[in-house]
Amino acid sequence: MDKKILSSRLQKEERFLHFWNEKDLSKVDYIRTLVTVASVANNLSWIFFSAYQCAIRHHFNQKINATISLAVREISNAPIKTTFDNKKNILLLTGKKSWLVSTNVDLILLYVKLRESIEFPLNSKTNSLNSVLVPLYKEKSTIRETFKKVKFLRNLNQGSLTLKKTKITSETIFSGKKIRGFGYIEQFFVMLSLGIFFVTKVNNIKYKRMFFKKVKALIIDFNTRNSPKMTVRFHKKHFKKMIHIFDSLPERKVIIGWEFDKYIFFNLLK
Questions:
Q1: What are the CA-CA distances from residue 136 to residues 57, 92, 141, 144 (Å)?
Q2: pTM above 0.90, yes or no
Q3: Do both 214 and 256 map to the same domain?
Q4: Which residues does residue 163 pair with via DSSP β-bridges, in sequence order?
Q5: Is residue 125 located within the same domain as residue 216?
Q6: Whose CA is closest to 107, among 142, 58, 132?
Q7: For residues 89 and 168, what is the distance between their CA atoms, to the nearest angstrom?
Q8: Which strands make up the sheet holding 81-85, listed edge to edge?
Q9: pLDDT at 2
Q10: Which of 57, 153, 204, 210 could pair covalently with 45 via S-S, beta carbons 3.0-4.6 A apart?
């Protein structure tokens, strides 16, 4: 199928996720995932989504073939309420997480900061936990609500997650410490995804070569440095410049929502 026709057909999230699953993009290597999406995307929603998926897979070492959303943000005056039954080793969670990348993902990785540390058995050892990470599928005690309106990345069915005395057992819980450093991993994959997108869309050979060199340098640096933080800090000024350059090119006019969504990427690279 012609890529322009395919891009047009993939505007709806349902069709895009079908395409994602059909191509096994949660299983193949990161570069293949990002190149496959960039080659058919004519909006930035899918560029962000593919970067976000790769970041989660990499940071949390996820091997499962599933689309995933982190659930971290909370309403400031309504934190998640936690109740721990230390006899049954069951954690009860009630409250709301204010953002999901999509309400149609297969798996939600829930992060909860505990009001008081708990002694919890993990890997046959008792651990003192101040925060937890919990994988959730579509438990009956959870409700996913899709936002009626969003300002940015409008192709994604973004939403919230409500927990109603959701039971968490020791078999499904992880230490919340694992979330540390995710922000830099996310920034790296956002730059990588956006850079690959620009390479596939730009017609000017001079800019295409320049963008390709920046993407290649980013990958090499990430693979050789031991610090994602330093890699991101060094390269993000180059990728901000790439956004400005693409913004001056006629190719931007065929990218749906570019005028709004470009600011999301600027903000992510602050």
A1: 16, 13, 10, 11
A2: yes
A3: yes
A4: 95, 142
A5: no
A6: 142
A7: 9
A8: 81-85, 90-100, 159-169, 142-146
A9: 61
A10: 153
Specify the amino acid at residue 142: T
Answer yes or no: are the C-beta atoms of 64 and 107 closer than 8 Å.
yes
Same structural domain for residues 131 and 119? Answer: yes
CB 47 within 8 A of CB 197: yes
Euclidean distance between CA atoms 219 and 211, whole angstroms:
13
Q: Indicate the SS3 state at residue 24.
A: coil
Please give the residue range of the domain that contains residue 102.
68-178
**CA 25 – CA 38 distance, rounded (Å):** 12
Consecutive H or E run containing 44? helix 44-59
Angle of helix 228-247 versus helix 182-201 axis, rounded to 10: 30
The Cα–Cα gap between 239 and 200 comes to 15
Residue 90 has a pLDDT of 87
- The helix (H) or strand (E) run that includes residue 142 is strand 142-146
CATH of the domain at 146: 2.40.110.10
User: 34 and 55 in one domain?
Assistant: yes
- Cβ distance 45 to 51 under 8 Å? no
d(CA 199, CA 205): 10
State pLDDT tens for residues 103-118: 999 999 999 998 888 8
Q: Determine the Cα–Cα distance for residues 207 and 213; give it in Å rounded to an integer.
A: 10
Which runs of E-coded beta strand occur in 148-225? 159-169, 174-175
